[in-house]
Amino acid sequence: MQYLVFRLYGPMASWGEAAVGGDRPSGLAPSRSAVLGLLGAALGIKRDDASRLDALRASIGIAIKAYSSGGLMRDYHTAQVPSQEKKRTFYTRKDELGTDKDKLNTVLSSRDYRSDGYWVVAVWQQQESEVTLEALARALTKPAFIPYLGRKACPLAAPVAPLLIEAELKAALDSSFPPILGSFEQDRRWLDLGSTVTYLWQGMADDLGAYDGVQSRNVWDEPISRMPWQFAARQEHQLILVEE
Description:
By secondary structure, the chain is α+β, with helices and mostly antiparallel strands. 20% of the residues lie in helices and 36% in strands.
């Protein structure tokens, strides 16, 4: 089967999970919605283009190999937002802050980030679509919009280095990439990469191979609509292995 494989690394990443109140937690690995958002940005799909976003979501399957989830960082975050006005739409942050100062409110939240995480992503086509893996590879090499790791404040710190490969899923996720620093040994020390890796994938539990210890769970990261921020549940499989 053909896969598009690329890597994600940055000093900060935030993979959103269910948020209650002012707490904004981060997952240990990229969520499906985050990967779809990154691919959509690379393709130049605007946030309000629901039809193209839905087509991308329906056509792409995703798997992750987490070499390191990074260290946990927490930010006490404050932001000013205007009171809601049904008759007025703000198109830029400047417009928001230029409103009546008495109508500005302060929002407080605690936001979690992952520091120096390193992940490999494999995507494949689940159905026929105008969005081909070749088009995605070209878009990742020269993205239309700036891609980021979950939040705009989390830029990529290394080229994603997309690869098109014919292989089994595990072999695709095990693909090698150029070192970020001078050598793979420097990468291993700098990123604190151990011998334990975590695989996460959608589909069937045995799609990665015949392994004992596969765990399955439901995760709420299947995007339905950006407007009311609705997500659906999907099944995700997980396997932790020790590499030689």
